[in-house]
Amino acid sequence: MRALVVMPTFNERENLETMAGRVRGAGPDVHLLVVDDNSPDGTGEIADRLAHDDDTVHVLHRTGKAGLGAAYRAGMRWGLDHGFDVIVEMDADGSHRPEQLHRLLDAVEDADVVVGSRWVAGGAIENWPKRRMLLSRGGSLYSGLALGLPARDVTGGYRAYRADALERIAFEDVTSRGYCFQIDMLRRAYAAGERVVEVPITFVEREYGSSKMTASIVVEAMLRVTGWGIAGLPGRLRRRPARRVSSGSTPTR
């Protein structure tokens, strides 16, 4: 299957070239699409140079910073329009290891959506302060309980989607801007009956640049998840809970 890694960027000049090289080293058939939101630090120019030198690297320039969700939607649309079979989400800051990309690509052979999970057996986090870890773990736990999602890592952003699954999820209708985009996509995947599996990954705190996580992003996620949870509660009470599928199991629709 032809795989495309979609990598949104905003002020990632210190990380992009290294990450692009690591993605290219992950597999000769893997392509990279950099979706740059008009970074003032010159990230877009670096991406253009990389694309000029390597025909498996592509660049999508956007006119302004419109949020992670909008960047991923644009990148996914580009990937589908160019005939890729699998679309992978990956952060540009080094927190997602390209060397573990094969875990997602192997698993997507028998699944529709693969979540790189920090919270399943074999998953790990490196160099995070305890406060940040508790926030992430708590947010994932709350989202899973509020929405009735069986995945352990609901907020994780290292994922692989089959192209046809993205169309069934109706990803272009997702309006979440920040990291809530990941929660929204996962709840839609389960609602559409997609085969979802989790594989363990190691999440590494960035070495260069600043985190894009802000208080407004956290608030957006909490408000949206709470609203979705309340709206969907009657339906969840009427049906059996979804079955969790982990790597190595046989997923079913």
Search tags:
253 residues; Spore Coat Polysaccharide Biosynthesis Protein SpsA, Chain A; seven-stranded mixed beta sheet; two-stranded parallel sheet; disordered C terminus
What report would you give on this structure?
There is one protein chain. This protein is of the alpha/beta class and 253 residues long. It has one domain (3-238): Spore Coat Polysaccharide Biosynthesis Protein SpsA, Chain A, CATH 3.90.550.10. Helix content is 41%, strand content 17%. The protein has eight helices and nine strands. Helix 2 links the parallel strand 2 and strand 3 (57-61). The longest helix is centred in the C-terminal third of the chain and has 24 residues, at 215-238.
What general form does the structure show? Answer: globular
Cα distance spanning the termini: 21 Å
Query: What would you give as the CATH superfamily?
Result: Spore Coat Polysaccharide Biosynthesis Protein SpsA, Chain A
Strand order of the largest sheet: 3-2-1-4-7-5-8
Number of helices: 8
Give me the Rg, rounded.
17 Å
Largest sheet: 7 strands, mixed
In total, how many beta strands?
9
CATH class: Alpha Beta
* H/E element order: EHEHEHEHEEHEHHEEH
Q: Topology, pairings included?
A:
Blueprint lengths: L2 E7 L6 H11 L3 E7 L6 H11 L3 E5 L6 H14 L4 E4 L11 H7 L5 E5 L6 E3 L3 H18 L11 E4 H7 L10 H12 L4 E5 L1 E3 L10 H24 L15
Parallel strand pairs: 1-2, 1-4, 2-3, 5-8, 6-9
Antiparallel strand pairs: 4-7, 5-7
Helix pairs in contact: 5-8, 6-7, 7-8
